[in-house]
Amino acid sequence: MAADTTDIDDIREQARRWLADDPDPASRDELTAVLDRLPASAPELADRFAGPLTFGTAGLRGPLRAGPNGMNLAVVTQAAAGLVGWLAAQGGTGPLVIGYDARHGSREFAERTAQVATGAGRPALLLPRPLPTPVLAYAVRHLGGVAGVMVTASHNPPQDNGYKVYLGAELGGELGWGAQIVPPADAGIEAAIRSVGPLTEVPLGPPGQVLGDDLTASYVEQATAVIDPDGPRDLTVAYTPLHGVGAAVLTAAFARAGFPVPGVVPDQAEPDPAFPTVSFPNPEEPGAVDRLIALADSTGADLAIANDPDADRCAVVVRDGHDGWRMLRGDEVGVLLADHLMRRGVTGLYATTIVSSSLLRAMCAARGLPYDETLTGFKWIVRAGGGSTPLVFGYEEALGYCVAPAHVRDKDGITAALTVAELAAGLKTQGRTLTDRLDELAAEFGVHHTDQLSARVDDLRLIADAMARIRADTPTTLLGQPVDSVRDLLPESDVVILRTAAARVVIRPSGTEPKLKAYLEVVEPVVDGDVQTARSRAASAVAALRAEVSAALGI
């Protein structure tokens, strides 16, 4: 009992020191209320002070709450001061460009970042309103920023927020110009953040320059240049931004490109940080696109498209037979986009990640095009090939696509949607659909059936235990075939890859959510042109593979 009392006293003292330095009255009141409930609130207080949010290659991301283990004005002030100090130490010149989404706290965090930058003598350019992440990534390149900050938690739950950093050409180099940071920049920024002194001593300057709507107009103009100006445009599209910030920019891009403006799900059209109509604001989650499908049905749409809340991801939903709809997997959209660009004669490097389908590799090999495979994350995809060949397309299976690396050097759900629409409109003139094109690719290269086993946890130790289990007791067979290749990517990355002659399993913790993920793939040859039978065999094999991997992981 004495030890417990000592622990409580220690955490109480940490909290008091935090309160003395916290610049936000609302946050101070929140933490004071937690202190007032001691000792009953001891577990909650301990969690808030379990350690600071770590600034990694995805920046910061966490729940909105007082204390170092949360997103709040104090944490953001410290992060901004560390980032600005690091930029100065690297000799970086030019303005800091800052964007934000419509989540709780996003605008306040963005404005504080601008004040910290100007307080340190660096110009700050603030996007004019909540806008998609790809607009910020574009702005860093377009405006010659030394770096960019995007305040967003993407598709995380409503109670979260986050802080992503992009570098300009001066510090990011040609491949990292407008891209998310990679090591060692993340460690350098983290060290600079930890060296920030009392927040009361961080100088705050004026609010910076709020940019005009011409920036968004420029983004839209460049986005529409991605597609053929003379291609077919007869396409009816249903769309949802999932209560995020994508609707205004996407509909403007479609209109400028000459497409009919998509119909937007009415009760999901406007930004709403509560995300009231979805249990989880991620188009991949069950039920998230139910309203979109209802709209597509009622309007006779050819296609349905969803962005995630910050519009850097793009989900595509197609008619499945005459009566239903299904969401295409990220791998399916990825190979459709790659194939479309190849057919348009776009040459250069095509890239994806180690957890994506191997079909892109097969396509590039057959068509004599350069291919590269990277660790997960667009920060790696846009640096694929090390600059030996210019990147022209990259994708990851988590609904992320980069169809124009010179426009946005990150995933971009707006230009991806435009390119999908271009492809679908062209196929429609031939009386064909996206699924018809997928069948053509399967007939040529075999069915590459992918799926994912995903386990969300409350205790991160369960993920560590599962990774230790698969390393200690690695399966020797999968689907009755010997495992002929085992790759463990530690210490570079916490990833285990298993392969048989016809199957592949990639196991890794999520980089942004408390999830353990296993990416499954089975390749099934098509015999006598019978794609549907091959698809059925592949689906059965993946279901069996899922059960085997789940048992091996103990989840």
TrEMBL record:
UniProt keyword terms in alphabetical order: Isomerase, Magnesium, Metal-binding, Phosphoprotein
Superkingdom, natural source: Bacteria
Cofactor(s) essential for the protein: Mg(2+)
Record has Nucleotide-binding as a keyword: no
Residues forming coiled coils: none
Positions of the Alpha-D-phosphohexomutase C-terminal domain: 457-523
Ranges where the Alpha-D-phosphohexomutase alpha/beta/alpha domain occurs: 54-168, 218-320, 330-443
Signal peptide span: none
InterPro entries hit by this protein: A-D-PHexomutase_a/b/a-I, A-D-PHexomutase_a/b/a-I/II/III, A-D-PHexomutase_a/b/a-II, A-D-PHexomutase_a/b/a-III, A-D-PHexomutase_C, A-D-PHexomutase_C_sf, A-D-PHexomutase_CS, Alpha-D-phosphohexomutase_SF
One Pfam family here: PGM_PMM_IV
Protein's UniProt keywords contain Nucleus: no
Homology family: Belongs to the phosphohexose mutase family.
Name of this protein: Phospho-sugar mutase
Organism (species): Micromonospora zamorensis
